[in-house]
Amino acid sequence: MIIHIKACTDRTYLYNNRSISHVLAVISSATCNWNDFYTLRPEPLTLQVITFDNCGIYCAQAGIYIDPWKPVAKAIITHAHSDHARAGMDAYLAHEHAVPVMKFRLGADINVQGLQYNEVIMINGVRITLHPSGHIWGSAQVRLEYKGEVWVVSGDYKLQQDGISTPFEPVKCHSFITESTFGLPVYQFPDVDEVHADINTWWQKNKAEDKNSVLFAYALGKAQRVIQHLDTTIGQIYTHGAIDNINKIYESTVGALPGTRRIDQSVNRKEIKGAMIIAPPSAMDTPWLRTLQPYRSGICSGWMQLRGTRRRRGTDRGFILSDHADWPQLNTAVQETGAQNVYVTHGYKSIYSRWLQTNYGLNATEVETLYTGEALDENLDKPGDESVQ
Amino acid sequence: MKAFSDLFTNIDETTSTNEKIDALVAYFAKADPQDAIWCVALLSGRRPKRTVKTSELWEWSGELSGLPVWLQAESYHIVGDLAETISLILPKNTSTNDFTLHEIIDRLAELANTDEPQRKEYITNMWLQMDQQELLVFNKLITGGFRVGVSDKIITKALAKHYHIDENIVAHRLTGSWEARNNTLTILLSSKDSATDISKPYPFYLAYPLELAPAELGAVDEWFIERKYDGIRGQVIVRDNTLFAWSRGEDLLTEKFVEFKDLVQSLPNGTVIDGEMLPMKDGAYLPFHVMQTRIGRKNVTKKALQEAPFVMVCYDLLEHNGSDIRHLSLAERRKMLEDLLNAAKNIQPDLPLHISPLINCTTWDDVTAERLRSREYNCEGLMLKRKSSEYKTGRRSGDWWKWKVDPLSIDGVLIYAQRGHGRRADLYTDYTFGVWDGDTLVPFCKAYSGLTDKEMAEADAWIKKHTLEKFGPVRTVTPELVFEIGFEGINPSPRHKSGVALRFPRILRWRKDKATTEANTKEELLTLLKIYTTGTGT
What percent of chain B has a predicted confidence (pLDDT) above 90? Predict the structure, then answer.
């Protein structure tokens, strides 16, 4: 086998985001397995508007990071989940609906500027706009254009419409950075309306048996979309404090939600009967939860697609409801960008980039990041993380 | 089919035993009678013969889904279940079939005599008429194995509830081998007595591990203390001048135990003995691996018969002169068993049935001391049985206890990890451990269990961050984590790099306090081997 490598700088050839000198070192060593080198291909001779370094996704021309995981001067935040919006940046830029949550979570004194979708800002010749990513309310894809070269950092996204978030908007680009949380063909999510109907049927059934229904959902995003689709004629909806905090921000920023009641000191637990209770996953196995007995529990997550994960959770029901793109959505999104270069981040990244190369003939590269995608438990990495040291 | 697949989903969606029972009862109430018996057969592990190859399923589902082979393989490694993976990657359809469960099972059986194109036509055609839930169940029918958290106890309870029959009777009727094809539950459960099937064993009474202090069991003299032998639990049956030997897994092993064939002469008809089958030579019981080798053989050679002759250590009599005596006290049953064996020995002096000796203990301290001597006898520990106890069905607490010796243990370093299956799909939970041989780590055992869910998740996350290389589903990790591995026995094994094979290895604890340099060595493992295999003639 002969690999043709044209004269190039060390940065322009990448294998698994490693430099060519590293690749050559592996090739020359005895442990090289040629099958590993399907991804070895020259980077196209395009302008590297975005690079990846140990602080995050970087646009050198604009001097700005996107979702950095270490403190930097300027950061654009795609959305307010904790693995994307971290503390310690000198200045933040985010969608205006994400700003109140960021202030709530990162501190009221952070220096943050809110933008609307499609609002243009220019930094040192780089034209930057935000576009809806459909992940949660206030989530955005970041489009960066410099000298006619367009890059899109999509953060987390989904194409499904959840009735809360501004729907995903495909953005044409040359280079697309995509997550791959559910980048495996076994993840093909059911119709959302069916899942919402299932949740209501479940609640109704539990209520008929004099049991409460406890649904575990992420406080930011998932909880609001779940509440939005609950059938309030069935009964009363209660919330855990962590959920209620975010609900209040949603209502003052975006719009009204169905009426819910926060479980605090003023609520007599005996009054909570046949109710729906929305709680964050961190409330599982806590004394707080035990005061709500008798109850049945359910969890809303894309991981519930697999029987194994469903049974492992120890909740009674698993509802397949995710704020991430499943396999068909990822493929649609990537194709609609028209991008020739795709950088695959957090998730089944090696599998998904191989698929993009072999099936669509794209220049797909895995990129190591610290994003965690959809975790089942806030303290744990998500099950599908494919990182290799 | 729809009804059965709904049942499967209902059971799968609950962790409550009562809800599982209710779901089964509701199913029995409305199911086609031939479907209902198949349901019981499948859930109790009586799977029909496999007629379609795995490779064929991959090929056909690959064609329908348009996915390349490598991607199917990656998907399978992550899902950890063949039937489920295929059900998830096939194109989505709505359910448009109304075949009954038994029709489908019969059609699948007929595929045995067909060519690939016919098999393909049937299977792919069916795939296109099913929704996802049915696809999973259908694929499980093809591949066998319905592990859905339904124990025999749950099935028994549900049938007892639906048919208003005593649970013990239901359990007995369900034991042994029976055909689901062209049969119904009404026929199976209403057989007048065991005479309809002379081979039928009784449901085994199983002991719980002793977790309280033995002194809490009351006076020692109310208990029989026996050794817990490390063999195959089984029943020997003589009825109508025919011998049957059953294992606890309800496999009919009569052919494997040639030594027992003369029992037809020495035991009266209508005899069922419960005991432990194991090899014995020169008055000593041989270790488990000797028996495994013997059982594994298709044909029992003369040499094998000489090297590992089987006996049964008998500890209970369930049927005497054709009557079921399980309701009598253990003391009475044991007396009858002793008399029976003595009489048999007069007819057959080399009788391969031995009475399980009682250990004479006057205090619980004696019992405690005897337990510690278990390994000298190649035994796993002690059995404590209340003298007044009836012979019950299934695992019950109160009258029978097993009190095993503490496992042997060794500290190993995690070197490889693989994703688990079923409940552990997509989590790295199957581990290979190494011990030091000079400055390299030699793999010495695999272990799958012993960690809590929380530890498993923690180890999984660690493994994903500390992977050195991937070989298909297996990852090598940086050797950093030390685990204490417990095991019941240690045997020589030329097939393993370490030279030993462990019995029942499992993780006792994650030794976060230990550095890898503190893990044990191959030499220490071989020393254990020397200590625990001396005197057993192997």
Answer: 57
3-state secondary structure of A288: helix
Q: Which residues of A touch B478 (CB under 8 A)?
A: 389
Cβ–Cβ of A308/B478 closer than 8 Å? no
Whether B228 sits among the annotated catalytic residues: the reply is yes
Q: What distance in Å separates the CA atoms of residue B110 and residue B50, rounded to the nearest whole number?
A: 11
Catalytic residue among B20, B157, B228, B392: B228
Same domain for A150 and A224: no
Q: Which of A258, A291, A319 is the endpoint of a domain?
A: A319
Domain ranges within chain B, ordered by starting residue: 2-143, 205-404, 408-533
- Measured CA to CA in angstroms, residue B5 lies from B26, B28, B42, B524 at distances of 13, 13, 12, 52
Residue A63 sits in a domain of what CATH number? 3.60.15.10
pLDDT at B153: 87
CA quadruple A219, A221, A226, A227: dihedral sign: positive
Mean pLDDT by 10 residues, chain A (389 residues): 40 45 48 46 65 93 96 96 94 97 95 97 97 97 96 96 96 96 95 96 96 95 96 96 96 95 92 95 88 92 88 82 97 97 92 96 90 59 31
User: Which residue range is the domain that position A301 belongs to?
Assistant: 192-319
Mutate to test the interface with B, among A201, A307, A316 (most CBs of B within 10 A): A307
Residue B423, pLDDT score = 65
B382-422 pLDDT per residue, tens? 999 999 999 998 888 889 999 998 888 999 999 999 887 76
**CA-to-CA distance for A258 and A250, rounded, in angstroms?**
12
Interface predicted TM-score of the whole assembly (ipTM), two decimals: 0.83
Token representation of residue A276: 């729906």
Q: Which of residues 161-190 of A touch B (CB under 8 A)?
A: 184-188
Q: What pLDDT digit, counting tens, does each position of A21-76 carry?
A: 445 544 544 444 544 444 444 444 467 899 999 999 999 999 999 999 999 999 99
Residue A116 and residue A207 in one domain: no
What is the pLDDT averaged over residues B305-326? 93
Q: What CATH number was assigned to the domain covering residues B2-143?
A: 1.10.3260.10
Q: Which of A327, A321, A362, A377 is nearest to A347 (CA)?
A: A327
**What's A202's domain CATH number?**
3.40.50.10890
B49-58, B291-300, B414-423: which range is least confident on average?
B291-300
What is A204-235 written as a DSSP string? HHHHHTT-EEEEE--TTTHHHHHHHTS-TTT-
Helices and strands (H, E) in chain A, number of each type: 9, 22
Evaluate whether residue A64 is within a structural domain. Answer: yes
Cβ neighbours around A335 below 10 Å, total: 13
Contacts of A362 (CB under 8 A, 6+ apart): A334, A339, A340, A341, A342, A356
Measure in Å the smallest separation between the Cα of B456 and chain A Cα atoms.
Answer: 11
Q: Both A233 and A253 in a single domain?
A: yes
**How do strand A140-146 and strand A126-132 relate by DSSP bridges?**
antiparallel
More confident residue, B127 or B199: B127
The set of residues, in sequence order, having a beta carbon less than 8 Å from that of B82 and lying 6+ positions away, is: B54, B57, B76, B139, B143
The yes-or-no verdict on residue B155 having pLDDT over 70 is yes
Residue A130 corresponds to which tokens in the numbers above? Answer: 């935000």
Q: Which residue has the tokens 């790099």?
A: B497
Interface test with B, best of A312, A315, A371, A387 (most B CBs within 10 A): A312
pTM of the full structure: 0.76
In terms of CATH, what superfamily is B408-533?
A: Nucleic acid-binding proteins (2.40.50.140)
Cα atoms found within 13 Å of the Cα of residue B368, Cβ hemisphere only? 7
**Residues written for chain B:** 538
pLDDT at B425: 67
What is the third-level CATH fold of B205-404? D-amino Acid Aminotransferase; Chain A, domain 1 (3.30.470)
